[in-house]
Design a protein that fits this description.
Length: 85
């Protein structure tokens, strides 16, 4: 037990360094990604290097009222379906 406890401060410093390095890598990657995304998007509303996308024309949709519902059974081979009886 005493040898293991004696080595703990050394292990702790290595773990601390590993955490610092890992968090620095994650933070640097997040910053790089955010800079790349902001640089590629440009000002809002502009698409540099991309052709303009045509928006579909807005038209009126014809409304013919409610649909007629039939509550008749489904007929299969001349007999009503077993689920519809």
């Amino acid at each position: 037990m005493s040898t293991r406890t004696g080595a703990m401060p050394v292990e702790r410093s290595y773990l601390l360094r590993a955490w610092i390095v890992a968090s620095a890598v994650v933070v640097a990657a997040a910053i790089a990604i955010s800079l790349l995304l902001s640089a590629s998007s440009g000002p809002s509303g502009s698409n540099p290097g991309r052709p303009a996308v045509k928006q579909p024309a807005q038209t009126q949709i014809a409304d013919y009222g409610s649909t007629a519902t039939r509550n008749e059974p489904i007929v299969v081979n001349g007999t009503p379906c077993m689920q519809c009886r």
